Amino acid sequence: MAFLPPGKKRRNFLTAQACVFIVVAIIMTRAIIGGAIQEYNMPFSTWPVELYISEFFMIMIYSSVFTLLFSIPLWYFFIGTQDPEQKQ
User: Which residue ranges run through the membrane (predicted)?
Assistant: First the structure.
């Protein structure tokens, strides 16, 4: 079995993975940006450039990690194991 078999299964898996990344990125953005605003008591418009950069990388790293973790069940759901009798 190939790592990512060609065809509809791979497309559905990658689409689901992209959707998970978008949802996780939205949740992480709201949590991280909202937490920083509450912690530092600074409006978003007064942030220094370093804070923008660090928050951006935190959002990207956390979103990537959670997407990889949530992709494990998606892998089994969309790609899963193939029956030996059902070889294409």
Answer: 12-37, 57-79
